[in-house]
Amino acid sequence: MLKVEELRVHFRTEFGVVRAVDGVSFEVERGEKFTLIGESGSGKSVLAQSILRLLPKNAYVSGRIIFEGRNLLELGEEEMRRIRGRKIAWIPQSQSSLNPVLTVGLQCAEPVMEHFKTDKKSALLKVARMFEFFGMGRGRISDYPHQFSGGMRQRVLVAMGISADPEFLIADEPTKGLDASKRKNIAELFEKIDKTMLIITHDLEFAERVSDRIAVMYCGEVVEISPAKEFFREPLHPYSKGLLESLPSRGLKPIIGFQPSMINPPSGCRFRERCEFAKKICERAPPESIVDGRIVRCWMYAERGWA
Amino acid sequence: MEVVAFRMGIFRNTLCTLGLGIIVFIALMGLLAPIIAGDPYKTNMSERLKPPSLKHLFGTDQLGRDVYSRIVWGARTTLLVALTISIISMTVGCLLGAIAGYFGGIVDDVIGRIIDTFLAIPELVFNIALVGIFCVAYGTSIWNVILAVVVTNWVSYARVMRSIVLSLKEREFVICEKALGAGDWYILLRHVIPNALGPIIVLATLNMGNVIMTISSLGFLGLGVQPPTPEWGQMINAGKNYITTAPWLTFFPGLFIALSVLGFNLLGEGLQEVIGRKRLVE
Amino acid sequence: MLRGVGLRKVFKTGLFGGKRIVAVDGVSIEIEEGETVALVGESGSGKSTLGRILLMLIRPDEGKVFFDGIDLTKLRGKELKRVRIKMQLIPQNPEEALDPRWRIYDSIAEPLRIHKLVDKSEEEDRILELVKAVGLKEEHLTRYPWQLSGGELQRAVIARALALNPRFIVCDEPTSMLDLSTQASIVRLLMKFQKMFGISYLFITHDLELAKVVADRILIMRSGKIVARRVESPS
After folding, report:
1. Total domains in the fold of chain A
2. What is the least distance, in Å, from the CA of B40 to any CA of chain C?
3. C-alpha angle C194-A239-A271 in degrees, rounded to nearest 5
4. Could you report the predicted ipTM of this complex, rounded to two decimals?
5. CA separation for the pair B82, C28 (Å, rounded)
6. Of C42, C180, C208, the CB nearest to A247
7. Partner-chain contact B173 C96, CB within 8 Å
């Protein structure tokens, strides 16, 4: 449904060129929840923003993003506007994206009115039904954002994202800054939503609950793409392993070293300086290997070269 | 490195460069007055009210004095007075505002109410009244003007400083300082005030424009710098009687007032952009 | 070693202080020498306020805090400053914890300078030693906070907190703003220093799993009260 091919996003800054996304390819299939996992600075948020072309002007984007047979990167601004919200919706990470002086009902109804050309009344009715479905109660549509708690506001944002019934949803860190129990609520909510989704998160527990497939990003590259169940049972890439083992419930084992700079990433495998398995060959860029239908970018799984 | 980046930011910003250019130009005028201009006091009754010419670039006034020389020397007066006012009101305002914001409680209540009271009085009217009172009490002196403007001008610094400090004192690094055992005054002077200086510098720059405006207004009303000392506002006042026959008497001082106010406003706006962008980068 | 008895703190907000929020509601807590007590609760449960009361950064409305038997609520000014050498805070957001205008070196040196504990020549040795202990490099010292990553910053904050050889540290969600792999390394670092120096920690977190790994005892806090206490078997 959405196909990203060899996507690169570079920023020119005073300190040099930041390669935030550097040659990423993946495909999200209809009906699945595809999650991009990565730590801060891995480029996952930039990747998501580039799909809707929300990046600032100093970003240089190349590659292809195919949605319904069309390359989004080649569309005009007018066509892009028709896709945003209507076909692809964005659930922002910041809860300050809500307008403090409008009722949340009205804010959710706005995209409905615009895309379906309906009147305010029926749009609000639709929003009220949605609020009920999300467990917030119909009456709350006439409340203002400050009357909601952090977790509730996140639900409002989700409601706003799906109010215009888009075909594709992008959620940017939906659990950021929320407590454990509220994260659980958002996870339950996401399980209820029956839509194709691209979820960006660093929250592994949340990812495990809601996703069908997982892609792991490290330093601007996707290093592994696996079905969620298999990923959490047995991650392939050394970085995926390290990430899972650093969970408190799985041993709280740190990954040695620091994340490399995005301006001068290490040559070859970008994880090699922190990898306990690294060998001489890792100084060359690892090829993409397919293991039991899972994609991994590590010499360990390459047919030739490791041994 | 931080300083260098900041400087680069200033010169990359058009507003900043333009504003700074105008200010440097006017400051140089004031600084080099003894070299580039003649005697602003020398009268010449045979050359009264002459229009601009090569000999008198901006013409002469009703006493035959060279308007160009008076404008150049006027820059010195205006800038010196404005700078004195700004420095005094900035120091007083920032300190009071910082104390109010940081310590809170009764101190804040008292200073806060004083600020509110001053904000409720129209500034220029208050300035005029104060100059009048000071004149009666202490006789005419340039310090009357300075003091009268400072009395109303410190308030904006205090208000801005107070609100910045209110948000700064909740920041974790300030709380950490307390946990480290640092005293309140140490924290205030070493950590809180330095971190508030960015917006204060912007405010001070924009405020310089206002102060120049106020000085000129007082001068125009005959309450500011007293003749024969050259000052732009007062020159407009003297020239207003000849506005139809000798418009250069009002035009040139007016032009330089406008130019200097514009300079400071442009620089202020520009600095705001530069500092704002620096925040974003961080 | 540290004991809080019957602590209570009410914040007044709203017009004329009309709205009252009971942040800490009659809490008693005890932390032994060399022990880690985890304080687990959701945001708004009052756990941060309790931590700050124990450090006397917030004065309680009721109750007492004893440190080695001395009642801290009775101390003022100089006496309190002397006690502060022994107790420290590691706050939640490392990007906020250091003065943005100061170089890392000066920030770490600050506690030494405030308490005038060492002279100039010793200062540098002490700081290099601290920096090495927390896993930073010398080159980090001349940088400004915005030039460091979250994990590096939190190491600098830890170095600063350790500079005075404290006996008690309140770690207020020290890893909640950090990435997963960084969280693990920071927590491991804190645990290492505890073993080395026998420091007591009050480890505030909202993550029960994390609390289980780090703590000897866990206290669960909800709406200003401690609602459950449990002992963890060492892992």
Report:
1. 2
2. 47
3. 100
4. 0.85
5. 60
6. C180
7. yes
